[in-house]
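For the sake of clarity, the format in which proteins appear in this thesis is described at this point. The fold follows as a row of integers, each naming the local backbone shape at the matching residue. One such record is shown here in full, so that the layout can be seen directly:
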Amino acid sequence: MENISIFYSYSHKDGHLREKLEKHLTLLKQEGVITGWHDRNISAGIEWEHEIETHLNTAQIILLLISADFLASTYCYSIEMKQAMERHTRGEARVIPIILRPVDWKGAPFSHLQALPRGARPVTGRGWHNQDEAFVDIAQGIRRVVEELHSQDSKVLFEYEGEKQQTKPGGVWISPINGEIAEDIISFAAFAYPTHSDDPPIAYVNFTVGWHGYWQVASTIYPSDNSPVFSSEVKLGNLHLPAGKIQISFDVYDQKGNMNLAPNGVHTVLYQPSKSIQPKKQK
């Protein structure tokens, strides 16, 4: 399992808070699941702007350490943050805003992203008994993201190996989803089956929804009365999806742990959430 590279985008005036965050991520480093980089790692004599750009373009997770100084920094806001959001939009990296100090960031290009700590409560604000409590919450949130990314890497590997040999189990959509979704409730239906007669039975099916390269399990369905049909109705508004293109897929698991991802492809649709349940924004 390869480690996940993390890039810290921050104002030097928040350097002491970045150092505290790094200490709280030490266990993830010691476990060999992440590596971290920031501009203080640049050695003497190295062209700093090129070095920053190189790491910013290759990091899998980009942490935006948000404060008034970050927003006021031309380099942080107009260069690093802009480049980070472009990679996020293309699905090349996961951008996570970390709210260090109280500041009005509503309307910023990253305001639609899920921020840390939980509830977007500033690390130095009154919502915590101490800063360590806030940093623990951030570290736990980053650990969850790292686990998600490793899971996605496993899916890619499985699909690649599946090109060389017949994957199992199998499945097909019963009611394909195409075009535009104007309703907030969507019905999933798929037929899942063992690939060969002597293969183990299906254990469950995950219906998944993805956007910008991130996947979320919308519903997990277990067999009922030995029926090969797995169906579910999901309220997309509960997933807090942004308006725009989303992908609908399903993953089939058998009782031996074999997994097949989207056996007959992924459907891309245009999602327009109703005004009553627009995706939650951070306050």
The chain has six helices and 13 strands. The first helix runs from residue 15 to 24. The radius of gyration is 21 Å.
